[in-house]
Write a structure and sequence with these properties.
This protein is an alpha/beta fold. The protein has six helices and seven strands; from the N terminus they run αββααβαβαβαββ. A seven-stranded mixed β-sheet has the order 3-2-1-4-5-7-6.
Length: 211
């Protein structure tokens, strides 16, 4: 059973890496990724400079005591063996700033965006988890500020989690328009909020933030 799950996990992670490779080759990862609630998912850093945000460093660790970034490294070691050194070298190089920056602080998004020269790509794959922390009114104000004021012209939003679709009205109201829609044919396993649970990819780009 353990061997079967290992092979399934390896198959899925390879498929996810190939998906990111396709997005990169299509130019959708040209720029700097802002990835809130990244969890152990270090793979976008293989293809783009990435600012990771999670929960407070005091609580952003698993039952085994590993912080999310370290858990991601463990996944790479476990699944890719001999390719690990080269992959981790790229991941370290492309992971910017503090690896466990708090995803719940609006000021962190403002600070990160001010440091980015060129397009920013907001990676939404688990952003819905924020709703566990704030009231609806607080969330709406914060989301609107991120989409309308923090993100700029030509920035992109990539959605890979069905629960984050609830944000589409706010994203569209901020002036973002869909530019690509992929359906993903990957036989997924794991929990509902597993970082491999990706049924589709939606890509939005801001042509203008003036409504």
């Amino acid at each position: 059973m353990a061997l079967y799950r290992f092979r399934q996990e390896q198959k899925l992670v390879v498929a996810y890496r190939e998906l990111l490779k396709v997005l990169s080759e299509c130019g959708y990862l040209d720029g700097t990724v802002i990835y809130p609630y990244a969890g152990p998912d270090v793979f976008p850093s293989l293809f783009a400079e990435t600012h990771r945000l999670n929960k407070s460093r005091k609580i952003a660790y698993d039952y085994d005591g590993l912080y999310d970034f370290d858990r991601g490294k463990t996944i790479v070691h476990r699944l890719f063996k001999k390719d690990t050194p080269g992959m981790l070298e790229i991941i370290y190089k492309n992971t910017l700033g503090e690896k466990e920056l708090d995803a719940r602080e609006l000021k962190n998004y403002e600070k990160i965006r001010s440091q980015i020269k060129g397009p920013a790509i907001l990676f939404l794959k688990g952003f819905w988890q924020w709703s566990r922390e704030e009231t609806n009114s607080q969330l709406q104000e914060i989301h609107n500020t991120i989409f309308r004021e923090v993100l700029q012209k030509d920035d992109r939003i990539i959605i890979l989690d069905k629960k984050d679709l609830a944000l589409l009205p706010r994203i569209k109201n901020a002036g973002f328009e869909i530019v690509e829609d992929y359906e993903i044919d990957i036989p997924l396993i794991g929990e509902e909020d597993d970082f491999l649970n990706i049924p589709f990819v939606l890509i939005y780009q801001s042509a203008s933030l003036t409504l």
